[in-house]
Amino acid sequence: MNIGPHTFAEFRRLTEQFHGCAAPGILLGGRMVTAARAALPEGTLFEALVETRSCLPDAVQMLTPCSVGNKRLHVINHGKMALSLFDKYNGRGVRCFVDASRLGPWPEMRVWLMKEKSKEQQDSALLEQEIEQAGTSVMALADMRVHESFLGKKSSGPVVLCSGCGESYPREHGDKCLFCQGETPFVMWPRKTKTL
Ligand SMILES: [Zn+2]
Question: Would you say the C-alpha torsion 40, 45, 51, 54 has a positive or negative sign?
């Protein structure tokens, strides 16, 4: 069973290149993306919603035109192995998730999903083998419709220059940019600013 246009071995190699290692969540996620895509009508212009920040966003970005940068990939951090692909215009789509009740024949997948052992104690070769062999048998699909707030173009409004740092920012953030309001999680040393 292919993952997108790729064999399992090819997709594994692409995962190493894109993600840095052949993470089980992407090998499984690739199948989830493929299954959800097959359930959408041909030619649908779709967006994606993933329910964990781990692995699944990369599976979507490797196999669909949806990316964080083009804003067609939405990530909510609910820590669930689930993703939806939905029609960009009417919000209707399909959610694919790992059905824990179907993991019986695949003990190492269960250990991994439920974090029953530390990563070091898990048998990664066996896990990968189980993911390859289980295919979509551990997944389920449900029809879904995304909340209206995900539909349509969202403008962040006018842009102004910050009176604190001089950089441009969305006016809706307030009198100064969020950095100058102290909300950015890093510090800088202004004297080291260099012109490039
Ligand atoms: Zn500023």
Answer: positive
pTM, rounded to two decimals: 0.91
User: Tens place of pLDDT for every residue, the chain, 196 residues?
Assistant: 799 999 999 999 999 999 999 999 999 999 999 999 999 999 999 999 999 999 999 999 999 999 999 999 999 999 999 999 999 999 999 999 999 999 999 999 999 999 999 989 999 999 999 999 999 999 999 999 999 999 987 777 999 999 999 999 999 999 999 999 999 998 887 766 777 8
Q: How far, in Å, from the CA of 88 to the mean position of ligand 1?
A: 34
CA of residue 158 to ligand 1 center, whole Å: 15
Ligand 1 centroid, distance to 181 Cα (angstroms): 7
Domains and CATH numbers, the chain: 8-150 (3.30.1330.130), 159-192 (3.30.60.80)
Element (H, E) at 37: helix 24-39
DSSP SS3 for 6: strand
Q: How far apart are CA 65 and CA 127, in angstroms?
A: 28
Q: Output the CA 179–ligand 1 centroid distance in Å.
A: 6
Q: In angstroms, rounded to a whole number, what is the distance separating the alpha carbons of residues 8 and 65?
A: 20
